[in-house]
What we know:
CATH class: Alpha Beta
Number of strands: 6
Helix content: 25-40%
Distance between the termini: 24 Å
Strand order of the largest sheet: 1-3-2-4-6-5
CATH superfamily: Uracil-DNA glycosylase-like domain
Number of domains: 1
Structural class: alpha/beta
Order of helices and strands: HHEEHHEHEHEEHH
CATH architecture: 3-Layer(aba) Sandwich
Strand content: 5-15%
Number of helices: 8
Low-confidence stretches: 226-231
Amino acid sequence: MTELELLREQIVACRACPRLVEWRERVGSQKRAAYADQMYWAKPVPGWGDPHARLLIVGLAPAAHGGNRTGRVFTGDRSGDWLFASLYRAGLANQPTSTHRDDGLQLHDCTIAAAVRCAPPGNQPTPAERANCQPFLERELALLPTVRVIVPLGAFAWDATLRVLAALGHSVKPRPRFGHLATATVGPYTLIGCYHPSQQNTFTGKLTAAMLDAVWARVKECLGANLATKD
């Protein structure tokens, strides 16, 4: 077992935040009617993707009936529908859809994690819950030595990423401000901001497919090479 695999097992076993443990398990027990016949994951959701990736995408937290149900972040929810369709168009994924952990989806030169690993009530983790999860992302980034570009999805993930980079010894002063396509250099990393592909953003047009595709185009520019699909 690699260090990264061991870390992800430790993430799945975490019970550090009583509020999140109670919520994720209650959701997994009560279920949504559309998924009544499914067994919910109802545990912390680890990162996943290409262990040799140059791109790390950081989300906020698993969705209650998405990652908390399927056990894979952005899998089985509307946000994931938008994200993976866009990654597929950019050549960063081998298929445009993601419905469950064993659906054959593969990421190319890309890996995905979350700032908070358990589904929070109302999609709103507390500062203490964010702090409890921060060491996981610190260790995960340290175990992904080829990452050069980080794309936080939304202001919460942007802030969490800056906290992680500061904890790893990189200067974040002056503190970069979040915005869609906002770009900042922190240590060896380039951060590129992206609005979160939540239904609130996609339904209102705050985030369009073209805007999301533009993020991966900027990633390719920063890396200085196309992210070619691996067969």
